[in-house]
Amino acid sequence: MRSRWDDAQAAAFGGALRQRVYSSRLLGADPDLVLHGGGNTSVKTVERTLLGDDVETLWVKGSGWDLAAITERGFTPLRLDVLRRLAELETLSDVHMARELRAASLDPAAPAPSVEAILHGVLPARFIDHTHADAFVTLSNTPDGEARVRALYGDEVVVVPYIMPGFALARSAWTLWREHAHAGTTGLALLNHGLFTVGDTAREAYGRMIDLVTRAETVLERQAVPAPRPVPAAPPADLRGDVAALRLEISRAAGRPMLLMTHQDDDVLAYAQRPDLPAVAAQGPATPDHVIRTRRLPLIGRDVAAYVQASEAEFTAHAPRSATPLTMLDPAPRVVLDPQLGLGTVGVSAAAAQAVEDIARHTLAMAQRAEALGGWRPRPAADIFDVEYWDLEQAKLRAGPPPAEFSGEVAVVTGAASGIGRACVDALLRRGAAVIGLDLQPAVEGVSSAAGYLGVRVDLTDPVALAAAVERSVRAFGGLDMLILNAGVFPPGRPIAELGTGEWEAVLKVNLTSGFDLLRLAHPLLRLAPGGGRVVVNASKNVPAPGPGAAAYSASKAALTQLARVAAMEWGADGIRVNVLHPNAVFDTGLWTPEVLAQRARSYGLSVEDYRRNNVLRAEVTSRDVAELACTLCGAAFSRTTGAQVPVDGGNDRVI
């Protein structure tokens, strides 16, 4: 562990609560300490109420907040006297604990407090830090983990055997603290869970955490030396069909479309190709609270049906122990380990799948270190089940917003670097889709910083490069649900008599042939779309109403429209919808340079301004207008429509 504390930076965080914010962010910045909302911190202060009363207050991290980005608003102020009285109760149900903690809040608008708030409240220290440090969890998740922890820390920490988080843990830890803590005690070691450290200042509590974790790391470095890793077998070059088929099975098990992000780097391939993988991976997650993101076990290989059957059997075995009736969660895996696919992580969004990836990578690293120490032995299945179906943990998932329209789905947009293509990327991302943008321009890579966006620079007229781009797209998100064919070129106006063969062929190559190539590549993937494949072809008003001087553009877009009509007939049996948009006069695109706009206006005998609004509604049509309609065609409202041609042109008298 490297201490990230900086006195100059810390000095900018005046006051106890802001010091708490500063050191919490230091903990959250290190994924070897906490991952994705894990861990919690607190500080005790005295606050004056509106009525002038001084109240001893515990500021504890709110549930769902990420320590790496936490602010003062992420802490909930609780009456300390209430927490101390609650800790003296013999029993307290989860429902009553959550209710009492909410009632003890000094701010009704504050987030729900951490479920470990009572433990933070009773420990006699001003600042308290809690992490799930990899090194400590690895050490305690071995057959003789408790003995190793006691030998490492002596009586400097109070060792607490595993108890499910909540009131029972707070009560047990508080009892053991009163029995064993002394002036030199620096924290708690919660076996199979994590570390607590205490301090009079934020720096002291943080420094003690860094020290305790560093000592655990040192033991691992000296004693847990993994066997040399064999060079893994390289995966096949073409995996897109396998990935898309697996994603479809997982989505069916989940009851909704899911993303499947795959990774084939040497680390995960070597782990996925271990001959003892089933025995090691079947031990479970590093800490029980990881289960709400990763499920207890990964899918090893690709037999989703067998995994579902095992999940259902496990629920049947453990559910009767619950005091209240339980409804089974979807039985789909969230982690896949396969010798060819490597590591697959599943989520309703790219951010969710990335969180699963982070946890899975840390888990496989911990498991390999623990195996070198005698075995990877996290908590048994019953303990993991209790946390997975613990109402307070499930509440974290229920608290999120409902899934967006296209969450769990994947879209490819061509011509995504600017204009209509870029607007389509933005519209699809807003609706929850993962989006791959394809374009020849380097700017495509930076169109969005969203976790669900991948920009790929590719020459669409190069079939080999295009196939590689599709392969990369499927490995990134798992498949293809929506294809928006938007790329096109609009050359300067030229009469047919003056149009060269080279220019004619260049326009058709981009506007028509590249679309044909991509449709052919996309078809086997669209067939495997969990909710049915959808294609939207961005053609042109020039198809029903061509104008002079645009022969190559008009002909290429007309041919593309005809191709889409044939695809609609051929692919309907596969559940794939193919529809066409005919935009016109969308001037905020790369096609419409000032020179082209001026030339086209002259060809109609109009000024540039009149040409911009040369439609029945006298309304300017924007890229976003087209993008919104493209998304609508992909949505539920058009689930029974294919082969349609829809104008988006403000009304064109020649078309009408």
From TrEMBL:
Residues 19-220 form the Class II aldolase/adducin N-terminal domain. The keyword Oxidoreductase applies. GO terms for molecular function: oxidoreductase activity. Pfam families: adh_short_C2, Aldolase_II. Keywords: Oxidoreductase. Belongs to the short-chain dehydrogenases/reductases (SDR) family. NCBIfam families: PRK08324.2-4. This is Rhamnose utilization protein RhaD (Predicted bifunctional aldolase and dehydrogenase)/NAD(P)-dependent dehydrogenase (Short-subunit alcohol dehydrogenase family).
